[in-house]
Every structure is written in C-alpha cells, then in structure tokens.
C-alpha cells in the first residue's frame, strides 16, 4: 500500500515522521509513501512536485529520498496533488514527444499537432495537415536539405548573432564614413551627406546611373581586412540574407503585379500589354 503505515506486527501506526522536514507525531493520513516505503508529509510532497513540475521533470520524477529510484506515477499525483493531474499528464505527453525521435510537435504558431516519422529519414521535410507549416522533422526548423541539422544549427548561430545583425543593418558610407542603416529597398544606396552611390552588400562605389565599377559582390577575398573564419562566415551569411530578401521582394512584386501593371499603363510612357507581359514574366522567373 502506497500510503499506509504499519509496525513490525502489522498493526497500523498512530504517528510518523516526515523524512524531509522531520516533523514527527504525524498521523497516517498526513503522510504518503511510494512502494519504496520512504515517508514524507503531504505538504513536503506538494512542494517537491511543484518544483518538479516547474522544472519540467515529469518523466523522471522519482522519490525525494536521496538515491531512491522509485518513480512517481499518475496514481501518486492523483492522491497527493489531484489538482495537478491534468497538467501533469499533458506535460508528460509533451516530454515523451520531445524526447522520442519518431515524434515531433508542429512548430506552427498555436498548433498542437504531432508529426510521426514515416521512415523517410529524420531530416526529411514534413507539412502539417492542420496549419500547413512545413518544417524539418529532425530539428523542427525550416526545411534545409541537403544541409544536415547540425550544420543548419551552426548556420543559425551565425545568422542570428549580434555581430551579423550590425553588419547587415548598419554600415559606413564608403565615401564619407557616415553610419547608414538600411531597412528596405534595393541595394543601390545613395548617401545624402556626400552624394556617394554605392552597393549596400559590398560597399563598392558605383555611378549614379547604377553602372558598376569592378563590382564583385559574391566573391570572398581571403586576403582582405576581415580574413578571419568569423569574417568569412558573416560574408556568406550576408549574401544569403540578401538573396532571401530579394526573393521576398520579388514575391511581393508578383503578388501585387496586377495593380502595378494597371498603374504603369495609366502613367507615361504608358506600358503596353506586351511590355506588361514581359515584366510579369521576368518577376516570375526571379521567383
């Protein structure tokens, strides 16, 4: 019996001692023990389970006695803290899914669906049938094949770093050194302080008409000022970010293309239907 107290002769005891707070003279109904026999008062049990719940230790919560491996079960929770039984079972299910490699929660906002590995590989892409979120089954991030989850994790650590954010969003003008922050638009930048035109990605000076001069955006120079491994990583992370932003911009243009074409047809030099088709087709190819 999990909560009874008996002496050597089998007769019920009239009092006992909690092994945590050492309060003695406690009646049997004030104490509780797992099959291991270690007795604790219900107040200490409640505090112990509260901490275990807050720390997320549901699957491996055992007897509070030092060195005892007896696990706490649903029946124990229902007896000691019945108000927690529903949340306890929910958390236990979540812990199981998070620890089991063949199951994964959908990372979609507010979605509680669970994906099951169909046997195609842990890093295959999965699409939720409820919210339609597509994600990597192995790590829960956006699909990243052929890169492995470990490599994608390293990439994210670079892409989300504060140094990368500063390099990506704030740069000095190559003409006068004034700090410039870019929050939208294309990569052709114009400094209003010194009238310098330059490429936002690599800071190469260009003509006001957009003509590039010795412009090599995507070629890393290992002999440059920032030739460290971190500098190389940030270099390619910035190129990736620029291409991602360009893709999003092109998709937005494609979505708004009907309105854009109507506006261009009504304004000088009055876009023809053939030119409109060419423009739309060019954006479709970009996407």
The beta-strand count equals 10
Give the uncertain stretches in residue-range form. 6-12
The order of strands across the largest sheet is 1-2
Q: What string, H for helix and E for strand, traces the elements in order?
A: EEHHHEEEEHHEEEEHHH
Tell me about this structure.
It comes from Trieres chinensis (Marine centric diatom). The strands form five sheets. A two-stranded antiparallel sheet has the order 1-2. It folds into three domains: 1-99, Herpes Virus-1 (2-Layer Sandwich), CATH 3.30.40.10; 101-159, no CATH class; 172-255, Four Helix Bundle (Hemerythrin (Met), subunit A). It is an alpha+beta fold. It has eight helices and ten strands. Mean pLDDT is 81; it is low at 6-12. It has helices at residues 42-54, 74-80, 85-99, 149-159, 162-169, 229-255, 257-266, 273-286, and strands spanning 31-33, 39-41, 103-105, 114-116, 125-127, 134-136, 170-172, 179-181, 188-190, 197-199.
């Amino acid at each position: 019996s999990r909560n009874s107290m008996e002496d050597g002769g089998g007769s019920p005891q009239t009092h006992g001692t909690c092994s945590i707070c050492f309060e003695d003279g406690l009646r049997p109904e004030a104490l509780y023990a797992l099959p291991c026999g270690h007795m604790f008062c219900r107040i200490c049990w409640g505090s112990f389970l509260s901490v275990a719940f807050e720390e997320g230790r549901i699957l491996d919560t055992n007897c509070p006695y030092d060195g005892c491996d007896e696990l706490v079960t649903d029946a124990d929770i229902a007896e000691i803290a019945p108000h927690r039984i529903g949340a306890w079972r929910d958390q236990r299910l979540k812990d199981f899914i998070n620890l089991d490699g063949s199951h994964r929660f959908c990372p979609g906002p507010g979605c509680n669906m669970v994906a099951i590995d169909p046997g195609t590989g842990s890093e295959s892409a999965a699409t939720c049938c409820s919210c339609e979120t597509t994600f990597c089954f192995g790590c829960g991030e956006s699909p990243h094949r052929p890169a492995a989850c470990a490599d994608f994790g390293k990439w994210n650590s670079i892409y989300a770093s504060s140094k990368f954010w500063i390099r990506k969003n704030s740069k000095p003008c190559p003409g006068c050194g004034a700090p410039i922050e870019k929050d939208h638009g294309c990569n052709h930048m114009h400094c209003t302080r010194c009238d310098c035109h330059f490429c936002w990605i690599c800071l190469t000076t260009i003509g006001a008409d957009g003509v590039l001069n010795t412009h090599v955006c995507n070629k890393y120079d290992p002999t440059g000022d920032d030739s460290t491994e971190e500098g190389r990583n940030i270099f390619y992370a910035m190129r990736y970010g620029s291409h991602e932003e360009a893709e999003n911009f092109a998709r937005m243009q494609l979505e708004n293309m009907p309105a854009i074409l109507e506006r261009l047809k009504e304004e000088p030099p009055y876009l023809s239907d053939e030119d409109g088709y060419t423009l739309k087709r060019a954006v479709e190819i970009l996407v």
